[in-house]
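[Protein data]
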Amino acid sequence: MDIVCLDLEGVLVPEIWIAFAQESGIEELKKTTRDEPDYDKLMRWRIGVLKEHGLGLRQIQETIAKIDPLPGAREFLDELRSLTQVIIVSDTFSQFATPLMKKLGWPTIFCNTLEVADNGEITGFKMRCEQSKLTTVRALQSIGFETIASGDSYNDLGMIKAGKAGFLFKSTPKIIQDNPDIPAYENYDELLGAIKSRLG
């Protein structure tokens, strides 16, 4: 049985941290997993920047409330879910993801959790497991699923390469160039066609 594992940010919705960087005027927060392969290092750095500027969860959630899925994302996801099981596997956090899941029609998402103080300051984060995306697809494979995965960043490469099929979507020229063995697509029709061709 097939199951499709999709990244969230950059694939179905805009990058939350880029949107927040634009909203807050803090340019340095535009750095994402497309730029920094080490997610732990990236998040610790982000939390430091937030603390320095006196910003917390509330301000980020206010930005997220204004974010809509990428054009065509909801339709793509609806069609894909009519064909096979789909899980969004993301390194984002439940406190960020819930409003976006509502706009996407409540798909299943596996993500992580922020540690937040009573005053709203983000003090840390708790990852669901080590190498969460790769670990997730391997766990699914261990219970009889064949995985097909798609994402756009360095932290998606493990799950993309581990399954029976994997695709880059709206990725960077550098990641595409460094991974010539992974088909890369720029629009949902192409990605849906590629996934359909590997189902069953």
